[in-house]
Amino acid sequence: MLNVVVVDDEVPAVEELAFLLGRDARVGTILRASSGAQALHALETADVDAIFLDIHMPALSGLDIARALARRERPPAVVFVTADEDHALDAFELAALDYLLKPVRPERLTESVRRISESLAGAETASTGDGDVVTVVQGATTRMIRREDIQYVQAQGDYARLHTAETSYLVRIPLAELEAQWADAGFLRIHRSYLVARHQIRQVRLSAGRASIRIGTVELPVSRRHLPTVRSTLETGRVRPTA
């Protein structure tokens, strides 16, 4: 059972999300907080598996709280819940597990809970080899995933999360290992936390000194360290940055 904290400065929003989470059998204790201070107090006094954070709050914002949690040795999973699409890039910079837009759809919330449960229950093992199919095994279940369907890979400590258009899989493979194995298959490192499939890139943006890549509906950050390689690679592939 997952212990979670729901944080929003609007109490009705807290209660609505807590209600939806309470309908999921995988969720146990649901703590509520209407400020950043209350959220940090809950995290200090209770064993919390995940935190559902609004971004815009007085004093401590959701991003402030996520930055503080990122410094912990074992931080809870962070899911942002907001009406603001503009901070998705900041959220992914902080390696958030998910980014939900209000009003929250029950099926999207279910997917977030699934990701959290996977992270806690133990990752799947994967055999990548040099072929075009990734074999993912969890217990007695084996899934065959076409590598060309993987849009991007997100680092989660010593694990990696493989994202497709429909779902994601947490596997016991470090991102650096996948980077080495899949370089010749068109996968490009854009950030310490992200590896992307070049053929899945839909847009490259350069704005106010920041760079990002759009894959499907997700916008991922490009770090300054990786930007020269990314630009060179995409220029070769005739993918032009847009201002």
TrEMBL record:
Chain positions found as 4-aspartylphosphate: D54
InterPro entries: CheY-like_superfamily (IPR011006), LytR-like (IPR046947), LytTR_DNA-bd_dom (IPR007492), Sig_transdc_resp-reg_receiver (IPR001789)
Protein name: Response regulator transcription factor
Keyword Phosphoprotein in annotation: yes
Domain of life the protein comes from: Bacteria
Organism: Arthrobacter pullicola
Domain called HTH LytTR-type: residue spans: 144-236
Keyword Hydrolase: no
Keyword set, alphabetical order: Phosphoprotein
Domain Response regulatory: residue ranges: 3-117
